[in-house]
Amino acid sequence: MTLAKTLKTALFGLLTLGAIHGVAAAQANAPLLPKVPPGTVLTIGDPTTQKALELSGLIKELTFEVKWANISGGPQTSEAFRARALDVGSVAEIPSIFANWNNLPVRNIAYRERRDPIANPIYRFGIAPGAEVKTLADFRGKRIAFSPGQAQGTLVLRAIHAAGLKKSDVTLVELPSTGDVYPKALASKQVDIAPLGGVNIRRYIAQYGPDGATLVEHGLRDDPGHLYAPQWVLDDPAKAAALAEYVGLWARATEWVNENPETWIKEYYVGQQGLSREDGQYLVKLTGEQVVPDSWSDVKKRHQETIDLLAEELGYKPYDVETIFDNRFEKLGAAALAKSQ
Prior knowledge:
Number of domains: 2
Strand order of the largest sheet: 2-1-3-10-4-11
Order of helices and strands: HEHEHEHEEEHEHEHEEHHHHEHH
Strand content: 5-15%
CATH topology of the largest domain: D-Maltodextrin-Binding Protein, domain 2
Radius of gyration: 22 Å
Largest sheet: 6 strands, mixed
Helix content: 40-55%
CATH superfamily of the largest domain: Periplasmic binding protein-like II
């Protein structure tokens, strides 16, 4: 191939890429349709909200067909997006950030947080029996369970920074943060420290506390929760309108859970998840009140800090946080709550 032809091909590629991004940007700014067109179907991976919608009766307000998928968490959701088998999913802060680093264009379309995130953290650091760790500063020289690309891994990096330490001051042990992997790794002293969430916090201390297992509070925000969708779904006017409707019902379902803890414990934690009533009560208390803000300004600021931290520590190229937020949806959750009062 001649140099001229090579340059022409490269230029065409750049122009095409620019056109694609231009279309995406245009779609992201296009007004949402006021009503969902007939025949619209969404495949939704949000089992928790599905249950809340069913219990509250809000599910009857959906004006489009929903295919519910029993999918949750970043890895499962991203895999389903790539297979074009899912239109929207519910995750924490990290999956949308990593998706865009891994050539999966997605955007956050809804956000909720905890009223008191420091008093009601999602995670606490479990400390192995015999490990002398009482504060984040004591992380120096310790082996820490680490799951890159997930919320737990990011919390570890943030805790290290908050303690004034560097990644080289600790030993990060890559382990999947699924099931009871972390509690077992702590109990067997495979690691000294691991971020624990949900009932694993309570169970770890109940089982291994007599052997010297302890917990350390990190004092950091770890509470973001999002709905996010692939760009190609958001580029579809009918699906985007359906997503807008779903965001409003998602917010109202969140409020319903806040207001009906006993029903939630009985029907969701015990009836659906198979947990004990004591575990359900613990999780309700651990979560506290969840709120849907009417502005993403602070959310985006924290997200940008997370993007920059992960880029620095894991060798990725930082990018503008606006890449992963579709601002058309910013006010919809809070507006739906205000309208329903």
